[in-house]
Specification:
The protein is an alpha/beta fold.
Length: 284
């Protein structure tokens, strides 16, 4: 197995990707903000299985953080990140500086409508502008054939797919299942912020989603009743402060009356000072 290389400039990255292309290799891309966990590693492994050359980007993107969010304290663990993705089959890690990605005079951003507007779009104004901008930049910088994202950031995957369609970006977007801890908590880089007590309280999210799934399995098709199941279970843990808990159309994020199409249950909460999101797909 070849050694995973780490590069910090766009020129170095493009040179390595061009060499892989010259060998006829398919290029996979896993965009990350670092502080990697087994969920990220599963994306790298999926790329390594399907592609001959896998690029992992590690970049804490300042444009997707709000003014009161945790950009400054977001964990940065590049050495550990490289070790993890190397074991999963990554060929190249691109870890640029902010100035490399957003040079002086940078003044262009990507605004996505539609699926970017509700939920996270309302709770975190400007967030998806930052996400869409950095993802489009990375797609253009790397020139990959396939990009891998996790289902945990469900709305983000819809936003990326919308952008790819709208801008005719020649890339395939693959969404891989959420990876969970044995007790059900969705893996997240922000889980490290949770105290032991908060870690137990955070299980309310996966528990509420599981009960909603069970209601669907039992035959419930009323979306407002399913939403009530979701919200009632979350309310049973008062330390979990809910921003939203909804059941929505899986493609549009609009709320239907009945579960007569693929839907998704989505939750966003604060546990202590830590913001956590989770979701599960619901099929009639």
């Amino acid at each position: 197995m070849s050694t995973t290389q780490v590069v910090h400039t766009i020129a170095e990255l493009r040179s390595q990707v061009a060499a892989a292309r010259a060998r006829g290799l398919k290029i996979g891309l896993v965009p990350t903000m670092g502080a990697l966990h087994p969920g990220h590693v599963s994306l790298v492994a999926a790329s390594a299985r399907a592609c001959g050359f896998t690029v992992v980007t590690v970049f804490v993107n300042p444009t997707q953080f709000g003014p009161k969010e945790d950009f400054a304290k977001y964990p940065r663990t590049l050495e550990a990140d490289v070790a993890q993705v190397a074991a999963a089959g990554a060929d190249l890690v691109f870890a640029p500086s902010v100035d490399e990605v957003y040079p002086a005079g940078n003044a262009t951003f990507v605004e996505i409508g539609g699926v970017a507007e509700p939920l996270e779009g309302e709770c975190r104004p400007g967030h998806f502008r930052g996400v869409a901008t950095i993802v489009l930049k990375l797609f253009n910088i790397v020139g990959a054939d396939v990009a891998y994202f996790g289902q945990k950031d469900y709305q983000q995957t819809l936003v990326v797919r919308q952008m790819v369609r709208d801008f005719n970006v020649p890339i395939t977007v693959e969404v891989c299942p959420t990876v969970r801890e044995p007790d059900g908590l969705a893996m997240s880089s922000r889980n490290v912020y949770l105290s032991p007590a908060e870690r137990k309280q955070a299980l309310a999210l996966s528990r509420a989603l599981r009960k909603t799934e069970q209601a669907v399995t039992a035959g419930e098709r009323s979306v407002w009743k399913l939403r009530d199941v979701l919200q009632t279970e979350l309310a049973a843990t008062p330390e979990v402060r809910v921003q939203y808990a909804v059941v929505a159309d899986a493609a549009t994020l609009r709320e239907p009356a009945e579960l007569d199409r693929p839907c998704v249950a989505l939750v966003a909460t604060h546990v202590g000072t830590t913001r956590l999101i989770d979701n599960c797909l619901l099929r009639p």
